[in-house]
Amino acid sequence: TGNDLPDADLLTIATDKFNGQKGGIDFQDRKEEDVLADIHLSIVTYQKDLAPKIKPSVVEWQVDWDMDGIAFTGKIDVIDQEMVIRDTKTCSRAPFGSVMAKDIQMTAYAIAFEQATGLRAKKVCRDYIIPGKDPRVETYLCEKTSHDVDMLKRITYGVLNAIENNAFYPNYSNMMCSKKSCQYWNECHGDWESLK
After folding, report:
1. CA end-to-end span of the chain, whole Å?
2. d(CA 81, CA 68)
3. Which range is least confidently modeled, 16-20, 53-57, 171-175?
4. How far apart are the C-alpha atoms of 148 and 83, rounded to whole Å?
5. For 138-166, how does the pLDDT look when each residue is reduced to its tens digit (9 = 90+)?
6. Alpha-carbon Rg of the chain, whole angstroms?
7. What is the pTM assigned to this prediction?
8. What is the separation of C-alpha 161 from the centre of its chain, rounded to a whole number of angstroms?
């Protein structure tokens, strides 16, 4: 329709979704109500600062693609009318701009887009919503190159090699790396817990 849902509707949807999933969330010493307040603040910030600037062509696009015989699947948040692939994240503080240049998720989305459409995305974009005392959005744009594709391939082959050799290692930097959030916790952490 080209029209965004009213904020009140979005907040209700988010609250219902949160309440339905909170049993599987590791709040990492935060109170549930504080997390929900940040979610609400993020939605309001997105609606005020970002939504008016974006004209989507595709939203929540489920894509399957192939890289050297390896099957991938993913969901692209938004492809705008300028053919920019957009992904939205929330974070407590803005990351360095160089993070976007190294982002393999966005490289994978650029490959998926090209395979599905035969067109190259003009750019990839990460919109970071930063709730808190001074809520804001920071946007990072970059182009993905053949060097980025080669790096993604190297990382993919390394992960596949580890899986084939039953070498599962924890990814402590990932927010989902917790007993409550990851169904593979025991596989990754079983041998590692004794090393602490």
Report:
1. 54
2. 30
3. 171-175
4. 19
5. 899 889 999 999 999 999 999 899 889 98
6. 19
7. 0.79
8. 24
- Sheet-wide strand order for 84-90: 56-67, 70-80, 84-90, 123-130, 136-142
Confidence of residue 1 (pLDDT cuts 50, 70, 90): low
Backbone angles phi, psi at 81, to 5 degrees: -70, -10
Look at phi and psi of residue 60 and say left if phi exceeds 0, alpha if psi is from -120 to 50, else beta.
Answer: left
Note the pLDDT tens digit of each residue in 101-141: 788 999 999 999 999 999 999 999 999 999 888 888 989 98
**Residues paired with 58 in a beta bridge:** 79
List of residues 6+ apart from 26 with CB closer than 8 A: 178, 179, 180, 181
Rounding to the nearest 10 degrees, give the CA dihedral for residues 85, 90, 92, 94: 10
Q: Which two tokens stand for residue 41?
A: 């603040």
Cβ 151 vs Cβ 104: under 8 Å: yes
What sign does the CA torsion over 100, 101, 106, 110 have? positive
